[in-house]
Amino acid sequence: MKQHRTSLESLKKIAAAILVSIVLLIMLFPFYIVFINAFKTPADYAQYGPLTWPRLFSFNGIISFWQRVDFSNKLINSFAISFSVAIIGVLLSLLNAYALGLGRIKGRIVFLVLFVVANTLPHEALVYPLYYLAKLLKIYDRQIAVIIVFSVIQSAFGTYLLSSVFASFPRDILEAAEVDGCGKMKNLLYIVAPISMPTLSVLFTFFFIWTWNEFFLPLILLISNHRQTVPIAISVTQGQHNMDATMASASALLGILPCLLFFFLFQRTLTKGITAGSIK
Amino acid sequence: MRLKDKGYGIFLVPGFMLLLLVVFLPFSMNLYISCTKWSGVGIPQWVGIANYVRAVQDSVFWASFRNNILMIFAVTVLPTFIGLLLSVFLFDYGIPHFGQRTVSFIRGGIYLPQILPVAIAGIVWGWILNPNYGALNRILQSIGLSSFAHNWLGDPATALPSVMAIMVWFQIGYPLVIFMSALQRIDPQILEAAQIDGAGWFRRFVISVYIIRPEILVVVLTTTIYALKLFAQIYVLTRGGPGTATIVPSYFAYQNFFEKANVGYGAAVSTIMTLIIFLLTAVFIKIQMSHEGIGEY
Fold first, then answer.
1. Residues of A whose CB is below 8 A from B138
2. Which architecture characterizes domain B58-290 according to CATH?
3. What is the pTM of this model?
4. Do B11 and A96 touch (CB under 8 A)?
5. I want to staple A96 with a disulfide (CB 3.0 to 4.6 A). Which of A42, A66, A159, A254 is the partner?
């Protein structure tokens, strides 16, 4: 009887393992196929198809795609835009939340609601006026336009998040410091900012990655090749040129790699953020 | 005592000014434009609600919303359902039998597509499904299923299902990660007690689902709104085609803004999208508030 039971149990375990492996296989298969084919020669692909391991690791597909889109330039663009947005976005969030979360200024609820609303508005309902205003202000097709727009959009989320974090901030410290002659600005710089550093760094990471991944507004606001970001450049190139299988694979791989890098760099922060806020 | 609350307003000035300039001014302009006929140059011509009337009578507009509902199925309904089954399975069975580390690895693998920009996820699948050289058709041919080889994204019959399948692949990791962390809140004694009372896996599943209701609600809300904003994958994979087979509201608005110079009409479509998002958010907040406190541990 006992024998029977344990064999049933282990049978169940094997079935479960197979099921999970199949799910995992389906999820990871596209990554695998992109990876192996990016390193093949077109002849290798033509002869042996997409599933075999490369006969010989060839970097030709990657190199020629890199040169075709000037990928170094796109990496620099994406990095410059995402980094600036993350810095400015965090600064704006901190200032806003200082006034709304700690300052309890008049009408703070109304302001907070406006920030939340701004965060839910679809970019489609902003895009044409933004495009028009950017042209009017002569910043159309300039990265500064994308930086300003996303700094504000990200800060709308950051303000909301940081304000709710500040709800549990020990306000007595600030009052005590004020009695000792500290101004509001000094309180912010020397007390609030250092204490909230962990939250600020989570926000920074999120703003950076979200901005890196953005597509719709950068597609509209940046029209010149040499100003575009990584996702846009890769997507636009797809439609413009005749690509062979290995180069298409290389282009996908180049899009994937930076994100993998961020994922492993910021893994801890990201898991914390995803589960804490259940955001976006 | 009131003194300490004074002087904070100044810190809000730059952030709020920018918010007005970058979000609320454009949004108001978009509202105004939606009531005009405008090609993007010259002076907009006031037409009242004509663009909204036009939308209601436009079959492409309805096609975009019909596709949108199917997209909600692909990014909300299916991933939430699969995510629930998988997360409870991994939590309830996987951790005791395979160990925490293996389960973390599995979770990470399923989450992996989520780290990609959607556009790049589209590029990955665009080349796998490419009719000329794509991997999928080559695989089908090599295992003797040539008759199944197909122009997946080019055939109106398979274009939308293909995009939907890609979205399920892309989205599953999000509910899985959230649900698995929510399940940690559950007191193991509850499930053990249920088991002693003879509850099978299904009953334990129902109990778990009941307890993580708040997270399910958040996932459903965020992904439903996300479904309405789908743009990059359509832009990369099908451009709304063939014909209008994969048109979605966001892409339809884009076409009117930047390809057809129907700026007024595009603005009306995007305003309707906004209204739907507000409505959804309001409904969900209401549900959330009426359930507040229940199911929290």
1. 49-50
2. Orthogonal Bundle (1.10)
3. 0.90
4. yes
5. A159
